[in-house]
Amino acid sequence: MDEWKPNPAVKSHKKRSWYLAWKYKLMNQRALRKLCQTGAVLFLLVTVIVNIKLILDTRRAAYEEEEESAQDYDDEMLNVEVPRHPVNNKKVLDVEVYSSRSKVYVAVDGTTVLEDEAREQGRGIHVIVLNQATGHVMAKRVFDTYSPHEDEAMVLFLNMVARGRILIFTIKDEGSFHLKDTAKNLLKSLGSQVAPFLSWRDMWTFVGKKGGEVYGEKHAKSPALSTWGDPVLLKTEVHLTSVEDAECHWPDTELNRRRKRFCSKVEGYGSVCSCKDPTPIEFNPDPLKDNKVFDVPVAVIAGNRPNYLYRMLRSLLSAQGVNPQMITVFIDGYYEEPMDVVELFGLSGIQHTPISIKNARVSQHYKASLTATFNLFPDAKFAVVLEEDLDISVDFFSFLSQSIHLLEEDESLYCISAWNDQGYEHTAEDPSLLYRVETMPGLGWVLRKNLYKDELEPKWPTPEKLWDWDMWMRMPEQRKGRECIIPDISRSYHFGIVGLNMNGYFHEAYFKKHKFNTVPNVQLKNVESLRKDAYETEIHRLLGEAEVLDHSKNPCEDSFVPDTEGKVYVMFIRMEQEADFTTWTQLAKCLHIWDLDVRGNHKGLWRLFRKKNHFLVVGVPASPYSSKKPSSVTPIYMEPPAKEEGAVAVPAVAAAEQT
Amino acid sequence: MQKINRNVVLALLSLTSLVFLLFQVCYYKFYVSQKNGAAFSKGRGSQSGQDSTRWHVVRKFLGLISSHNIPVYLIDPLILGLVDKDIEQIRSSPDGPSPECKYFCAPRDFTTFALLDKTWKHEVGLFRTAEKMGFQWLKIINKDPRLDGMDDLSGMEIPLHYILKLASHAIHLVVFYERSGNYLWHGPLRLKQHMDRKFVPFRKLHFGRYPGAYEKPELLRVSIDDLKVQIPKNPSSFLEEMSHSRFLECRYREARAFFQLYPDDASFDAVEFRKKAKSLLHLAALTLNNLGVKFWLSSGTCLGWYRQCNVIPHSKDVDLGIFIRDYKAEIIPAFQKVGLPLKHKFGKVEDSLELSFQGEDDVKLDIFFFYEEDDHVWNGGTQAKSGKKFKYLFPKFTLCWTEFVELKVHVPCETLQYVEANYGPDWKVPVKAWDWKSSPSNVQNNGVWPVDEWDDVIQIY
Which CDD domains does the protein's record reference (chain A) (predicted)? Predict the structure, then answer.
């Protein structure tokens, strides 16, 4: 604009004389002049319009460009802003901790992060871990140190917490009865003055930084054995540090980004968040050659036991032939921590709003998970179903890859399961051996899609029926005489000791001594002989070669089976009809195997190992294999114990199986 | 003097505006050329800058995805339309060099590619590389429809569309998901609140206005304009499929509400009927699809889909609709061949045709033929014993895809009007006693068949 503005003044003067000359010439041609004027006005209008349009166009183009760059700018600003905020504001948290007989609570900056006043639960020491930079709750645990061994768990947990985290302790009801010196010393090393002297029914609260300062401690002594100490309320302030100080400086990779996100949110996973030497979260196990289950979806059924889930996923992702893309974790409830674990491993997770209660809730969660699995993988013919409290054997997928074609081809099969109910340390021997059994073990199994879609899904127990899904699946209406294939040595290990139907005692009695395969690449030996008819031939061959044991001896005694190795023995027990398991149950009891209900049978035959010998048990006369009994042998009968015990024990724990 | 002044002013103004106009034109030209200048780089011979920009952006994009081993295929309707004209030549020389930029230089704002979800997972690396190459990108995520039908499951949101922009051209990457019923699905493109609405002219996109359903395409690797791409083996049938690809999700939320009001029947009979109805529908769909006859869910089956996303257990048959223009004489023998004998045939092709086939255990497959008029469509009914004719009127409708009992099938897009025409405003209330002659709200008497025609128009087997 500057260019032409001064010019018109000069130009117009010249133009003026030119115009005057012209005017004289055409003085009388008024009409023409009028025309010229109109023309000029029209021209003016057109140029104005064109000009405006041009201006708009140019401006828009410029504006677009500007916006693009402005956006880039915004993004950068955002990135800078996030860390700056906490760095500059050294914030202070107000922490309130309450300890009493019937209620505990913890409030951070006015927000209640723990409140437990439920009756008859939550006894012991509650521990909360806060992030020292953000003040977020990273872990919440309760250790019932009134009971044995819980203090060991607490020590384990506290040792896993990273230095610098803020720890909050409070006791509900009683927390000292089984609090041993190791635990007390650890608490003392954290800065507690009272911990070494904590005694029966004392109330106690403590806030401190791991490996650092103490923010406050309060204690109320119980005056007498029969009463509790007075409630204590501790109010204190905690100074937050900067994010940089609270984080580790791992190399910036995709994996470490996931790790960072995880470690800034939760605590209690040990070396995964170690700054110096973090444990890997990607495992890259060897791929399987000719893997037939690479495209089979894996559904992991989970609840709110994130530490279990963490252990489970580690073992699953370390198994040879695993395909992480096919894994979906289904979490029953909107729990954050299990989801954090799922994201740490880069897997996909789905949360499920709980429906119904107790066993029915589990059952509804199973249904939703299975349906979702087949929706998400419409091509799949099978799904592998796992639970969050299982260790997965290194050859789990190899085992399935070798056997899955049977499930497709043999209509008489119900499932393939990685779990042998009777496979204990002293009763399982051969990793390459498979069985057919009439019971469905669960605990790591393969489900055929058409079985689920055509039979199970349409009549799955509704939420108001408080049934166990697995008990329901074992019912004859569902199973319809079909069998499952199981390995002699289980390919999964049930480690969960807390759960709906599970407790420490029960776990120790029935699950702890279970055998678990740790040998990679086991070549299964009798896969084809597991087809319906071939299996009968195989059993007849086995029985033909088996040596009949001395039936005058007590089968519970160790000497019942000779001290040999690699032989096949058979014994006959009394079994009047198909459902008569009186003697079997007694035998199972004294052999210390699963005796809560009948498992692992195939047409009145059980197969297990004793002293490294294959040991067959045939129920006479119900079993079709009874014909193999020499006429001289009288089947063994074992008396059930006094009525009261048997009557109570069986129904009470029949449901207690998978959690 | 006054007049002179006016003239002078006018002339002056004209001159000024002329100069200003010239200046503006110059500035604009300069500005635009500068903006596009960067994208010119190695211009392809006679092509103008804009054209070669498109080609370069596509080439860069293809380089990007092949470096990450991601199999995409071209679904751009504009380019496929051009390709289709020369398809024979392209097929016969899949690797031949091309003399000119014929396809990828065609004027357009976008180039659209498809990506199968299950063939990739590692997006982080891809987009980091894309950024390094100068692409700006936008990701559109939304709920996973495969979990929509499920009671209260909340999964992670899934990516539905990606848009990568470089210079003046953009790549639209549509993510296709496999769904139950052996078909591919892509989601609608919906911008969330915080998103940049001016990132690209979204309205001009060819995919994303509605969700769509497609068959799994057979792909062909070709070289066009010296770029190696995968395209659908038969572009014209893909384009035809695209024009009718709109997909309707079942109304799962409403279905749940319905089941809360009227709990589902889980009795043995109901389960069995559903199973049979499902397999009958699968068989019918297979048969009709093989014949190339377009059909949709009608009457009770359509109501079941719309109201409860399932087969109504107390209905006793499966109902399908077919436009009479799609009628083929082979329909009856084809059904007989797959084990569904003709049960009855009412009417004739010219008027009120209705076929009924006998499925397994009393489950019947009814096929109603629809006749199109100027402002409505209708199908006919016939009472066997009296020869009475009935007419069921429906407002005009178009067909959409949906998923029903693990099957990709058509339903009227305007389902509500269709269902309301058939069942009245109270369609939400289950009715067990249904009389096809009087219960429908759209039934009209339509006279009586002449007695001498009865043998032809009332055939019962």
Answer: GT13_GLCNAC-TI, PANDER_GnT-1_2_like
ipTM (interface pTM): 0.77
Provide the 10 A C-beta neighbour count for residue A159. 10
CATH of B50-245, one of 3.30.460, 2.30.30, 3.30.70, 1.10.3470: 3.30.460
The verdict on B448 touching A (C-beta cutoff 8 Å) is no
| H/E element, B385 | none
| Closest to A626 measured CA to CA, from A568, A578, A582, A566 | A578
Q: Identify the sign of the CA torsion B450, B453, B459, B460.
A: positive
Query: Which one of B12, B20, B309 makes the best mutation probe of the A interface by having the most chain A beta carbons within 10 Å?
Result: B20
Region B279-303: mean pLDDT is 95
- If asked whether residues A447 and A316 sit together in one domain, one would say yes
Q: Among A19, A254, A372, whose Cβ lies nearest the Cβ of B150?
A: A372
Q: CA-to-CA distance for B245 and B218, rounded, in angstroms?
A: 17
Cβ B322 vs Cβ B369: under 8 Å: yes
Chain B residues in contact with A348 (beta carbon < 8 A)? 155-156
Contact between chains at B156 and A348 (C-beta distance less than 8 A): yes
CA A332 to chain centre: 10
The token pair at B10 is: 């006018």
The H-assigned helical ranges of B68-177 are: 77-85, 87-92, 123-132
Q: What is the pLDDT of residues B437-446, one digit of tens each?
A: 888 888 888 9
- pLDDT band of residue B30 (cuts 50, 70, 90) is low
Per residue in A464-477, pLDDT (tens digit) is 888 889 999 999 99
- Please answer whether residues B295 and B342 qualify as being in contact, where contact means their C-beta atoms are separated by less than 8 angstroms: no
Instruction: Tell me whether residue A331 is in a domain.
Output: yes
Q: 3-state DSSP call for residue A251?
A: coil
Confirm whether A581 is domain-assigned.
Answer: yes
B329 to chain A, any CB pair closer than 8 A? The answer is: no
| Residues on chain B touching A11 (C-beta within 8 angstroms) | 15
Class of CATH domain B252-460: alpha beta
Q: How far is CA B353 from the centre of its chain?
A: 29
> Which residues of chain B from 197 to 256 reach within 8 Å of chain A, CB to CB?
198
Judge whether A389 counts as a catalytic residue: yes
Residue pair A175/A124 in contact (Cβ under 8 Å)? The answer is yes
> How far is it, in rounded angstroms, from Cα B355 to Cα B344?
6
Contacts of B136 in chain A (CB under 8 A): 68
Is the CB of residue B261 less than 8 Å away from at least one CB of chain A? no
Inter-chain contact B14–A44, Cβ cutoff 8 Å? Answer: yes
Q: In three state form, how does the secondary structure of B385-424 look?
A: CCCEEEEEEEECCCEEEEEECCEEEEEECCHHHHHHHHHC
Contact B153 A44 (CB under 8 A): no
Asked if A355 and B6 come within 8 Å (Cβ–Cβ), the reply is: no
Active-site residue identified among A144, A332, A340, A389: A389
Round to whole Å and give the CA distance between B189 and B172. 11
State pTM to two decimals.
0.78
Over residues B335-357, the pLDDT tens digits come to: 999 999 999 999 999 999 999 99
Does a structural domain hold residue A19?
A: no
What integer pLDDT is reported at residue A613 of this predicted model?
A: 95
Are the C-beta atoms of residues A378 and A393 closer than 8 Å to each other?
Answer: no
